[in-house]
Amino acid sequence: MSVHGQVKIRTSAEQKAARERERAEKLQLYLTQYQSILNNRYLLDSFQLLKQTENVLIDHPDCFTLWNIRRESILKLNDDQQKEYLEKELQTTQICLKSNAKSYSCWYQRQWVLKLLKDKFNLNLYQNELQLCKKYLEYDERNFHCWAYRYYLLERLCPSSSSSSSDLESFYENELSFLRSTIGVNLSNYSAWHYRSKYLDKLLDHNPSRRSSLLSNEWQLVLNAFYTDCSDQAAWFYARWLLFKQIGIEFINEDEHIKPLEELDNIEPGNKWCMLALSQLWKGKNIKNDKRIIYLEQLANQIDSDRAQFYRDQI
Amino acid sequence: MFEGLPNEYDIIVVGTGIVESILAAACARIGKTVLHIDTNEYYGSEWSSFTLNGLTEWIQTQENPVTNINPQDDNERIMPIGNPLNVFRNIQLKWNIEKTNEQSSTTENDTPKITLDVLEKQSRKFNIDLTPKLYYATGGLIDLLIQSNVGKYCEFKLVSRLLLENNGQLDNVPSSRADIFNSNNISLIDKRLLMKVIMNCSSMAIEDLNEDENIPFIEYLKKQKLNDTLCHLIINSISLVDYNATTKEGIIKAKRYLDSIGRYGNSPFLYPLYGNGEMSQCFCRLCAVFGGTYFLRFPLAGFTIDSLTNQCSGIVATTGERFRAKDAVICNNSFMESISSNKNVIHRTVLFTNQSIKSSEKDEITYVRLSSPNEFGIHIIEVGSGSGCIPDGFFLLYIFQEKPQENINQIVERLLNLTGDNFTRANILGQLTFDQVETLSTSISSPVLKLLLTHGPDGSIDHDGAVNTARNIFHQIYSNGEEFLARAPDPEDIVIEDDGNTNDTSTTNTNTENENL
């Protein structure tokens, strides 16, 4: 304990005041730096602008104008320097993403960089980017920016249609299996189900002979999902797409598709998703069932009256 | 021996077990002077964790003669301590490996066999719990660590793997939505029924049970249309109760388990890095930060009692030196003489192994609970090197029962049947067994006023009751609204302020200081 000093513990009011002071200082610094960059936009050279904007963006990654200035600066450079700085840009955005993993500007900047580097295609680069996506998805599996970026990467990495058919097929299957494990961690992951639908589509287009077995497995997966958690909408939305857009009404059969839903309905009466799905299936297959109208009315009047007209339209 | 040590305190705490340490910290926190002693040369009492060599020493030093002290005048009575070493009985350590490799140095074997001296060389990497416990993520102890900020003195790992007995092998316990979704062993309908019961247990209020409150939990679960396997899952692995538990007990415990999942990961339990011995130590650390005085290897003879008021006035060392406590003496009940006649024991076993009971790609901390309709729960905890408790390539397997029922050999046999070829008797390098007196359920009431007794652990897997015991004792001593372990300040909020004379010469300030003294 120092001879001169006394130990004091800040009260919560003092803590708050200290925090406010800190914030005000930070804000002042930001405004000064930002203004100075704008004033000197056409006076400084690319290198200086890139350095100055980087300092600000690391703490404030969502400043759209500053990213614009960076793009301008990089485009002014000659070819060799441009390539070097584009690759550096990936590092810069990575640091900025640490402040805000959902920054529109950062993710956009990365895509912009890859588009410009497209001609100098570098497989390692793309693999690194995929690893980055994986990491960010581990932090937050519902980061839709990251999902969209990942989709873009896979489009670029996808074997071309001229390469062997089995290459393409395993590419799609790898992705489907990654999506399956993501759903396994959290079955509410709407993004994962959504991209699953896209890849399933591609796989089915590519290899129509596997259609019935693929769709059957997919149906089992989605049944598993809503038997585990019948109130989770992600699985139900996917089911609706699967049944009506992929499998198609002619191929929906009672045993495989309708009976399990009827059983679920018995255990969980009043579940709006189940009731709606059944009503649509009974109508689609022309199954005469008094319950259909009763369900739709219950849904409209009591269970989900916010969407009453939607249900009434189906009667 | 006692030079410089003051003789008078507000509180004297005897024993460094968890309840005593929480109390020492709580009293120091509100500004009371605390003397915290232990007759051992290590912290933790029954909760200690030992290195491998430390364990051998502990086994050997189970002798401690009791000293008789005469009262100093007619107003004083001496109550000697019982032999605290009565707490642990029938200690046996048996190794299945050779001491050294010297005998077999010229064999054709490529890999040298593990020998005891190899393990002993890495003695410091062992932290063997005398009392292994797990901590519910939303339980009393973890909450207290967070609320008081004592948590910054210790680290935890998630108990990453929860297993149960299923069809002759060890399977993962499906308790979260993700587990159930991914399970291949449960039919669709059973998944729905199980999820329903789990969601219900989590969200219902106990009052809503009405008449169901007191019916056996197994009957209540059958009413929800669960089959035997799923009933067993809930009773044994989620509620962690016995088959004769009431529905009320079952649901309360299920809630605690389910609430704790997700707080730090996909499991409800935490395990302290470097073993359970750390828990007492971090509370002792807080006590010391707030001015508590520590004295290990204290030569304690007994307690001084004021004959007129029948109040405990303090403690006396074997040298005759006396230490007074103004407010109270807090003491672990294992120091009472009556402990020696206590028949309730917990049978504990520690197996040293070189293979996990169930193989995995990564380091795990595993908890298995075995039970059946006619027996009490058997707890098995396995820790690997990631826990900081054992060197790489080896594991500690703790086994103990809620209530002593089966003998250890039967339990090990049962476990070996479940682990198959992956883990066999050949993987068990050594076995430590001992009996620990169970002091929790033995309500020893204090024989004198101002001597408050705390207790050790019972045979259950958690020890959240310790917090309530500590809080109750605290309020018995300080009943005028004192706060129990208020949050300790964060370092950023501690400001060293000058007296305002920042530029003055030091001589002026020093003179002022001297005057104030």
List keywords for this structure.
heterodimer, A: 315 residues, mainly alpha, 3 domains, 15 helices, extended, B: 517 residues, Guanine Nucleotide Dissociation Inhibitor, domain 1, 8-stranded mixed sheet, 13 helices, 27% helix, globular, prenyltransferase (chain A), Prenyl_trans_a (chain A), transferase (chain A), Geranylgeranyl transferase type-2 subunit alpha (chain A), EC 2.5.1.60 (chain A)
Word description of this protein:
- Chain B: One of its GO terms (molecular function) is GTPase activator activity.
- Chain B: Residues 502-517 have a biased composition (Low complexity).
- The complex is a heterodimer of chains A (315) and B (517).
- Chain A has 315 residues and is mostly helical.
- Chain A contains 15 helices and one strand, in the order E-H-H-H-H-H-H-H-H-H-H-H-H-H-H-H.
- In chain A, helix 1 runs antiparallel to helix 2 and helix 12 runs antiparallel to helix 13.
- Chain B is an alpha+beta fold and 517 residues long.
- Chain B has a domain at 176-260: Guanine Nucleotide Dissociation Inhibitor, domain 1.
- Chain B has 13 helices and 22 strands.
- Chain B is globular and about 75 Å long.
- The two termini of chain B are 29 Å apart.
- In chain B, 42% of the residues are buried.
- Classes of the chains: A mainly alpha (315), B alpha+beta (517).
- The interface between A and B is medium-sized, with 26 and 25 residues.
